[in-house]
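Allow me, if you will, to draw on your knowledge of protein folds for a short while. I have a record of one protein: its chain in single-letter code and its fold written as discrete structure tokens. I remain grateful for any guidance, and I place the record below:
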Amino acid sequence: MPDDLTPVFKALADPTRRHLLDRLHERNGQTLGELCNALSMARQSASQHLAVLEAANLVSTVWHGRQKLHYLNPVPLHEVQERWISTFETPRLRALGAIRHSAEENAMTTPPTYVYVTYIKASAEQVWTALTDADLTARYWGHRNESDWQEGSTWEHVRTDGSGIADVAGTVLEVRRPERLVMTFPGSDEQRNGTPSRVTFTIEPHEDIVRLTVRHEDIPTEADLAALSAGWPAVLANLKSLLETGAVLPQAPWEMHARLREEQMARTTSR
């Protein structure tokens, strides 16, 4: 068992912590008080369990005004699924998962939110520049983020193949350099329908490192959520490598993810 998954399995071993994850799966972004009320649990006990889940990266927290909101982080669970479950039960579980996802999409009443947290050895200003400098984003993202980064301005996610095509064109909603950047992040369907999702970057420095939180809200579908759950960690891993080593990863991480998925599909087909 990989060492990096040990905290995940230990956190999941407790039924109370699994219950907390269930509550966040039902409604993401709850405060400590809301979780306590739903579980009839003392605040101190709930806080201790949430600390274990956060240490295992199963829960991420974001301050919204004076409220501390808790979000389920699906990435470690996805790693467990990839390492331990899909290897043995892929065909049957894929069929069951398709049925479950279809039911969840039909029952969904509010758009999902995705939250990802990473820690980078850099200054807040360096992280801000990496998010907003067109040349730097081209290096670690494969697209240029072009804008004057003023509130109300347009920003574009432009391909680096020389075509000048913008795969995303959104609006800058809030700018607090170097702490907070909020912008719409519409896909093609959202641009047509006028219902863009929204991304918030929060940069929190602590001594020699920075905690970078990405909060992607109002995601249209579960399929989009699955794509973002793979995309954001890949992009931010490349950003982290660039700032800490001066170079991006030797292989684009989103290409590695695609290759692993293709290999998994090939193994499944050959059975």
